[in-house]
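Internal tracking record. Fields below are filled automatically when a chain is submitted to the structure queue. Please do not edit lines marked as system-generated. If the sequence contains nonstandard residues, flag them in the REMARKS field before resubmitting.
Queue: standard
Priority: normal
Entity type: single polypeptide chain
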Amino acid sequence: MSVKAVAVRTKATRMIKDSWQSQANLSFFLILQVLIAFVLPSMGFGRDDLRLYADLGFSVMLISGVAIAWGWPKLFWCAAPIGLLTLIFRWNNWWQGTLRASLLSDWASIAASVMIIVVLLAQVFRSGRVTHVRIQGAIAAYLLLGSAYAHGYHIAEILHPGSFSVPTGGMLSAVDWTYFSFVTLTTVGYGDITPLQPIARTLAVGEALSGQLYLAVMIARLVAMEIVFWQQDTTGNSQS
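SYSTEM-GENERATED OUTPUT FOLLOWS
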């Protein structure tokens, strides 16, 4: 390989690494999240095997989310083991298929979602000006919050059968849990799926409060960060 080819390859590798460690990775993660969770399912992907599609999609998002923490060694080495264990538990559920394996998969998925939320918010709250990319990262964290609660509802139904009232009387799928979670997170509450048991009602109330408090606190925080940056920038320009 020639010296020129090596230089080009090294430059390309550095550009990819710098791009991923920059705030642009937040936009990429949000786009990936929307594609997997909303766009592709509406186009028919996963219709024949929803469980396989859900596990594949979650695995891709999990790996992408953990990779965002690459620039922070301490955060990365906290996120990586959780991500690895989550992948093991989710795919192990295919071989075992027991109630215990399903619960471990859900609990691990909640832990991984919370960890990725921490990773995303670490990027969002970095020092500097508030950009549209940071806002996209905050939106991605908000969507992950809904995903985490969806797993929580599934756990509640497994441990306490009959925790939810369903019009059809059938079993709820991953799509149904996600639907109910986001309807609750946004406090829309259509009423087609209703929590009955105390644990289910507590989770629903907690998610509704979390969704509203997240938006209020996030907006206040981002506005405060922009004001501080503007004041520092103005002071620096006046002194120069």
